[in-house]
Amino acid sequence: MTRLTDLPPAQAKRLAELECPEFTTRPWVSGPPLSRRRVAIVSSAGLVDYRAIPAATKPDELLISHISVNFDRTGFQEDWNVVFPLDRLCELAAEGVIGKVAPIHYSFMGATDPVQMEPYARALAELLKQDSVDAVLLPPV
Questions:
Q1: Which DSSP symbol is given to 14?
Q2: How far apart are CA 61 and CA 53, in angstroms?
Q3: Measured between alpha carbons, how far is 38 from 16 in angstroms, rounded to an integer?
Q4: With contact defined as beta carbons under 8 Å apart, do 114 and 21 qualify?
């Protein structure tokens, strides 16, 4: 994990001064056991700014489109499951740990101000509901 002290001073200052949103409620949901849930991936790996990714996508069809001195792509280049664990999710479905793998997954650019992301997150939530997704894997990137 990159620390603010590892960043160029101007970038560290900008990030340190970002306002963190406060939420008045904490959502609570219930639902079926994991073995009956349909699961989608929502990645912050910047696999293009915002992208819907079909489950049939192959690793060589994805790329991280953003360049930063603070982001090491080595793991992604060696194993795409580091940032987009679709193979692992499919294995969990085959083993019966999860019910099904959703047909569409999503990626955002992770270094986006959360306040600016809210309308996109709400729209994404609606797409996930329409696709009967009832669990989301959020791989940290």
A1: H
A2: 10
A3: 37
A4: yes
What one-character-per-residue DSSP string does 57-92 give? --GGG-------TT---HHHHH-GGGT--HHHHHHH
What is the model's pTM?
A: 0.70
Helix and strand numbers, DSSP H then E, in the chain: 4, 5
pLDDT in tens, 13-49: 988 898 877 878 876 777 889 999 999 999 887 776 7
Has residue 4 got a pLDDT over 80? yes
Count of Cβ atoms closer than 10 Å to residue 125 Cβ: 13
More confident residue, 127 or 5: 127
Question: How many Cβ atoms from other residues are within 10 Å of residue 57's Cβ?
Answer: 17
